[in-house]
Specification:
single chain, mainly alpha
């Protein structure tokens, strides 16, 4: 599930721990923990909102300041209550920076 982008690395570890402790179906554990993959449109909208709310940081990121990328990623993670896949968020920021 992690390699397909359905879960983040952290979420995968939690699902695996649950499987090792209690067994069960991974899909049911994912649903019970609320880790269903975010819709791509919802994620894109969140990324756009974070950019619009943090224009100074976005300009620094576009200028090559990679340190600020973690700040922006954190803002999306906060907005998504940890449900966003960090790799997909980073890719979305990179794609928007190139545009």
């Amino acid at each position: 599930m992690e390699s397909s982008g359905q879960l983040s690395a952290t979420q995968s570890k939690e699902v695996l721990a649950e499987l090792m402790t209690h067994g069960g179906d991974p899909g049911q554990i994912v649903a019970r923990l609320g880790y269903q993959a975010m819709d791509a449109a919802a994620l894109g909208s969140m990324v756009d909102d974070v950019i619009a709310s943090n224009l100074e940081e976005w300009q620094r990121y576009c200028g090559g300041d990679e340190k600020v990328a973690q700040f922006l990623l954190g803002q999306v993670m906060r907005a998504s209550k940890g449900r966003a896949n960090g790799k997909l968020v980073a890719a979305a920021f990179a794609a928007r920076r190139k545009a």
